[in-house]
């Protein structure tokens, strides 16, 4: 058998849908394995993965039903009937309604467009919507920022979900790169300004002279402050404090040894 065996389902309705979908995928992966082509065998395999006090009575009833079947009864309807019985017993009847509500409330967390699209597609499947429908595409657009919606609606306007998603992805990538460039430019300007302050501060230190032991000054306005005892201060210390932007309230920051 290929792939890891599924985790046991214990009757928790929250995980019923995931269990069945994973079970189907496991069966599909191992469809060439001897016995997996039997629909009775598939149902029996599923029962071995459904355990616990919450499911005991139901599994016993299904086992009793399977025991009545003969080789001639090993047809697709057996598997379909098993899935229907499981859904009727365990699957969350409110799941679809919750997914529909979550879908309408879903919003893009900038700039995670791929995560937004993945969440949207997952909720669409659970809600029972079709990605090809225009109403579903409108739900996707409603969760995007206005600037991205404006880009999407510029001609040529996409008429499929995939085309709409791709246009949204390209718009967000373009705007995100522009935003990063602006932020980088602003950071660069601030760095230059801080370095200039550092240079002026060091010039003032030199003007005080190596023997000065009675003056303290503010890094930021480079003006003399109150008389204090001298303190050793390296060029690197001044520059690091300035570049860190560690400015005191009302330009009153003072540094002591």
How much of the sequence is in beta strands?
A: under 5%
- Please tell me how large the radius of gyration is: 34 Å
* Structure annotation, total helices: 10
Give the neighbour order of strands across the main sheet: 1-2
Low-confidence stretches: 213-257
Distance between the termini: 71 Å
- SS-based structural class? mainly alpha
Tally of DSSP β-strands: 2
Describe the structure in your own words.
This protein has 10 helices and 2 strands, in the order αααααααααββα. By secondary structure, it is mostly helical. Among the domains are: about 80 residues, no CATH class; about 70 residues, no CATH class. Strands 1-2 form a two-stranded antiparallel ribbon. A hairpin with a 6-residue loop joins strand 1 and strand 2. Helix 8 packs across helix 9. The protein is elongated.
């Amino acid at each position: 058998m290929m792939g890891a065996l599924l985790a046991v389902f214990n009757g928790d309705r929250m995980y019923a849908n995931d269990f069945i979908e994973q079970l189907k995928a496991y069966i599909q992966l191992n469809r060439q394995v001897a016995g997996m082509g039997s629909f009775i065998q598939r149902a029996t395999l599923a029962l071995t993965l459904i355990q616990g006090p919450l499911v005991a009575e139901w599994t016993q009833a299904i086992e009793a039903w399977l025991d009545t079947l003969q080789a001639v009864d090993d047809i697709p309807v057996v598997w379909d009937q098993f899935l229907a019985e499981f859904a009727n017993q365990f699957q969350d009847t409110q799941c679809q309604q919750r997914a529909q509500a979550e879908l309408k409330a879903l919003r893009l967390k900038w700039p995670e467009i791929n995560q937004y699209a993945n969440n949207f597609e997952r909720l669409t499947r659970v809600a029972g919507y079709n990605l090809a429908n225009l109403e579903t595409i409108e739900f996707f657009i409603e969760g995007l920022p206005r600037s991205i919606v404006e880009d999407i609606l510029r001609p040529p306007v996409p008429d499929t979900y995939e085309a709409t998603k791709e246009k949204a992805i390209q718009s967000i990538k373009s705007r995100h790169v522009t935003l990063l460039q602006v932020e980088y430019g602003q950071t660069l300007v601030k760095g230059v300004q801080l370095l200039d302050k550092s240079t002026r501060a060091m010039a003032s230190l030199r003007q005080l002279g190596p023997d000065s032991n009675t003056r303290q000054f503010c890094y930021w306005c480079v003006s003399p402050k109150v008389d204090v005892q001298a303190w050793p201060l390296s060029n690197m210390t001044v520059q690091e404090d300035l570049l860190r932007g560690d400015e005191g309230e009302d330009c009153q920051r003072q540094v002591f040894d």
